Amino acid sequence: MTFEAFKTVIEKELSEELKAEDISVSVKAVTKNNGVKRYGISFKDNKGIVCPVIYLESFYNRFTSGKTIGDIIFDIKNLYYEYRLTEPVDFEYIYDFDKVKDSIYMRVLNAENNEEIMKKAPFLTMEDLIAVFYIKIKNEAIGEGSILVHKEFMEYWNTDIAELAIEAIKNEKKQNYDLVSMGSILQEYIDNSDDLPEDVREEFLERLDLCDKLPVYILTNKDRYYGAAKIFDVDVMLELKDKMGSDFYIIPSSVHELILVPDDTEKGCVSSERLNEIVKEVNMTEVSPCDVLSDHIYYFDSSIKKVMSVV
C-alpha cells in the first residue's frame, strides 16, 4: 500500500470510529522548514476544539514493518484521547505586542529553500540565510509550542521589522549561548561508554587527538533548539572570536547548532574546500531534511564584523 492510499484508509477508518462522538477527522499537509511536507490527522470536536496534529509518517513506517491498520487506528485514537483539549485555548493575547514582545525569538533558515515562508513572514537576511521570528508559547493546557510571526501580525502590533528584530535579539541575548568543545564531548562519551567496540573506540580516540591539535567547538543556545540563530548576533560572534583567539569558520551543522573551527595558521586548519565537502556529506547522511541549514560554510571576519559565505 502506498502512503497516499494509507492516508485515505486511516482518514476513513478514524472517521468511522469517532463518528459517534461527533468528532470530524481530516488529513492535512503541513509545510515544514525547507519546503518539507508532512501529513497528519487533524481532529475537531463539536465544540470546535482542535487537537494537535498527529503526523502519519511514523505510523506508515510501522505499517510497512508489519503492524496492522487496526493496531495503528487504536494507537492514533489513544494519542488523540491523551492530548486532546477539553476547553478552547485563548490565543487572542498574541495580537497585543506588549504581551508577546518578551516571547519573540529568531529561527535561521536557508533562504532559497524557504521561499514560501518568506512570502508570508517578515525576515532579516544574511548572505543566503534568513532569520524569521516566532512567538514562544507556554500554556498549561497545551504545554510548549511556537507560532510563526506573519506579516499581518505587524499590522496588528503597529510595529515594523526593525522593532521586531530589536526585541528578538534582546530575548536571544537573555537566553545566552552554549559553547562546548568537540573534544570534551568526545572525551565524555568515551569515558562513559565501557562497552564500546575496540575499533569504534580507536576511531573516537583519533578524532579526540585531532580535536587536541585543532580545537572545534559546538555553538547553540541553552535549549539546543534553533540555536543557529546566534549567527545573527554580531556581539556573540565578537565574543567568540576573543574566546578562541582568532576569526573562525562556521559549519552550519543544522538549524539548531553551529560548529566553529578557529582559523589558526599556527595549529593548521582544514581547508575551506574540505569543510564544504564535510557539510554536504553530513547534510546527506545525518541531518533531517527539515533541519538542513546550508550546503556550504561561512567565515566570521572580526575586522569588518561580518559573516561571509565561503563557497
- Biggest sheet features: 6 strands, antiparallel
Overall tally of structural domains: 3
What is the overall pLDDT average?
87
Multimer state:
single chain
Number of strands: 13
Unreliable segments of 5+ consecutive residues = none
Q: What is the general shape?
A: globular
The total of helices stands at 11
Q: What would you say this structure looks like, in words?
A:
There is one protein chain. With 311 residues, this protein is α+β, with helices and mostly antiparallel strands. It is built from eleven helices and 13 strands. Strands 8-9-11-10-12-13 form a six-stranded antiparallel sheet. Strands 4, 5, 6 and 7 form a four-stranded antiparallel sheet that branches. Strand 12 (297-301) and strand 13 form a beta hairpin. Helix 1 packs across helix 3 (69-83) and helix 8 (182-191) packs antiparallel against helix 9 (198-213). The longest helix has 16 residues, at 3-18. The model has no long low-confidence stretch (mean pLDDT 87).
In short:
The protein is an alpha+beta fold and 311 residues long. The protein folds into three domains: 3-83, no CATH class; 92-174, no CATH class; 177-310, no CATH class.
What are the defining features of this structure?
311 residues; alpha+beta; 6-stranded antiparallel β-sheet; 11 helices; 24% strand; globular
Layout of helices and strands:
Elements: H1 3-18, E1 24-31, E2 37-44, E3 54-55, H2 57-64, H3 69-83, H4 97-100, E4 104-110, H5 115-120, E5 123-126, E6 129-139, E7 143-148, H6 151-157, H7 161-175, E8 177-181, H8 182-191, H9 198-213, E9 217-221, H10 234-244, E10 248-251, E11 258-262, H11 272-285, E12 297-301, E13 306-310
Helix pairs in contact: 1-3, 8-9
